[in-house]
Amino acid sequence: MVDEALRRDMTNISRSLFTDEIEQAEPPRKFSMPHFTSFKGDGDPERHLKHYRSAMVLYRNNDALMCKIFATTLQGEAQDWFHTLPARSIQNFDDLSLVFTKEYSSYRSIKKKSDHLFNVKKNPKESLRDYVKRFKAEKAKIVGCDNSIASAAFQKGLSADHPLFGEMIMKEDLTLADSFALAEKHALWDEARQAEKAPEQPRKELAAAQKKDEKQPNKGRQEVKRRDRPTTKEGPMTNNYSKFSIPIHQILRDVKNEPWNADGDEEPPTKTIRINGIFAESEHLGATNNSKKRKIQQALLISQVQAVDTQPGPIIGFTEQDAEGVDFPHDDALVVSVKLAHAIVDMMMVDNGSAVNLLQLSVIQKMGLESTIIRRAEVLTGFNGHTSTAIGHITLEVKTPPVVSKQTFIIVNDPSPYNGILGRPWLIKLDAVTSVKYQKIRFRIPGGGVGEIKSDQQVDREDGAQADKIGWKPEEDVEDIILDPQQLEKTAKIGSRLNPDEKEELTIFLTKNRDIFAWSPSDMPGIDPKVACHKLHVDPTAKPVIQKRRHFAPERVAIIEVEIDKLLKAGFIEEVAHSAWR
User: Fold this and answer.
1) What are phi and psi of 225, to 5 degrees?
2) 261: which residues sit within 8 A by CB, 6+ positions away?
3) CA–CA distance from 151 to each of 123, 133, 146, 184, 477 (Å)?
4) CATH architecture for the domain at 114-197
5) Which residue has the higher pLDDT, 569 or 510?
6) Would you list the DSSP string of 530-562?
7) Confidence of residue 444 (pLDDT cuts 50, 70, 90)
8) Which stretches of 356-487 are DSSP H helices?
């Protein structure tokens, strides 16, 4: 009986749930399994279907493949349910999606509406910044949230006696983005006022201690007397002096450059951390295993700071010998790695034209020093008049051995390929001379000699390339408009803050001129070189070599093949019949 039941269970497991047409269909050539989030039977079925369709976007037209691969995304109880379906009952992916959604319909998430935001209130002890953060998190959970309702809910969540509430009441036609910007200014104002109040508490404690000492004057004298006469268990300790065999002036001359701790107490050792580029490794940036290895090796390299033997009182300069190790030709910025407090920070641009030192907020957060920022709204102005509001400032030690200088950094939170900027305050304090051509910084060392800092030229180029991959983002929210009712995929993006008249006028204009848009490579038969011309930055004296064939991940191969097919169809490229170059 047991064997029969077991044999029956094995038969049910091995039977096919798909039709013969799906079973016999072969997978595409060079197909690679994408990465999926598994469904175990306790989640939203619609969310899982959206995730699956997005991952299989390149194979949506292959119905058999969609059915077979979907079964592999089910685990646990969901996999058990799948094998309870009748044999050969699945004819296409639409049928499978419908059966799957019906089975787990009770797990569907209840979609919140825009008016749910009226339940979000600012707590009396909650800071304005935390309230804005919590409100944005709730708004992100609402798909298609109406910004006008969200703006009203944001204002309603504030108490009537809050300064921001009164200012929002007085202003008309305030958009949600304007409300958030106004809240950010008020948050900076609140934090600046708190920073000014913070030093008052230590002053009160010091005044109280002084009053206590005035009430007990004799106690202080007795403690001084006891300290003047240290004792041991055997009795009063006598002062013992060591006799030096070397003259004292020679000893002082040898130790004059050694670090001196006036308090006599050694600082506890701190853990040194390293902060690399702003752009972290991500599968979306297409980092291969080889590029990850190179990145790790570069992360182990510290900007070389070395002493160069010169005569006392040297004149700092650069010669053609400094070109060794520099990749020419180039127009790279001068980017170095420096030690700030206990962290080695990469991707710091040296800018002779900057009147201040800048540091990204993300760097301070990684260093664990965000609580020490003196928050104060400060306006920075660029050379083109563009202004940016800083979060505050912080003072850190910049260590370029053997010179250590304290520098004030303005903290910003703006998109940038660099972790920060070392400006004129640091260069003047270091008494440094820079060379962008030779990618070096040289500075005088107290007591004679010249120190040298070499740039991270290769790291700067690779992180700059990653910055290009991230791409451009609009400064404001945008919305899609359809330019051709017959072809819904032909859309354009326009600003969501346009008034109805401007939006209608712009939509009519773009619709009338939709024929000038290039919707595919075949729509660009040729471009005048006077308009745009691609140029390879290659040394004309270099000898051409055959490069090794590069191997890509399977999912990237599929994307490359699609793009190549587009270029072949448009006639931009053609296949070469020669197997090797001669």
Assistant:
1) -65, -40
2) 267
3) 18, 14, 9, 15, 14
4) Orthogonal Bundle (1.10)
5) 510
6) TT--------TTSPP-PPPPP---HHHHHHHHH
7) confident
8) 361-367, 424-430, 457-470
pTM: 0.34
Own/partner contacts of 431-437, CB < 8 Å, gap of 24 or more, are 433/316, 433/317, 434/334, 434/350, 434/352, 435/318, 435/322, 435/334, 436/332, 436/333, 436/334, 437/318, 437/326
Asked whether 367 and 341 are in contact (CB, 8 A), the reply is: yes
| d(C-alpha 222, C-alpha 230), whole Å | 13
Highest mean pLDDT among 203-217, 235-249, 556-570: 556-570
Fold entry, domain 283-470: Cathepsin D, subunit A; domain 1 (2.40.70)
Q: Over the range 86-109, which residues count as b (16 or more CB within 10 Å of their CB) and which as e? A: eeeebeebeebbeebeebbeeeee
**H or E element at residue 572:** none
Residue 363 CA to residue 343 CA, distance in Å, equals 9
Token pair of 433 as six digits: 């001379």
Which is more confidently placed, 35 or 292? 35
| Two structure tokens written together for 296 | 């790790």
Q: Tell me the two tokens of residue 316.
A: 């700092």
Closest CA to 163 of 188, 196, 136: 188
Mean pLDDT of the chain: 76
Strand partners, 189: none
The torsion angles phi and psi of 440, rounded to 5 degrees, stand at -145, 155
pLDDT digits (tens, 9 = 90+) for 420-429: 999 999 999 8
Alpha carbon dihedral 470, 474, 480, 482, in 10-degree steps, equals -90
Q: Where are the domains of the chain?
A: 2-107, 114-197, 283-470, 478-517
- Per residue in 477-536, pLDDT (tens digit) is 788 888 888 888 888 888 877 888 888 888 889 988 888 888 777 777 667 778 777 777
Q: How far apart are CA 131 and CA 128, in angstroms?
A: 5
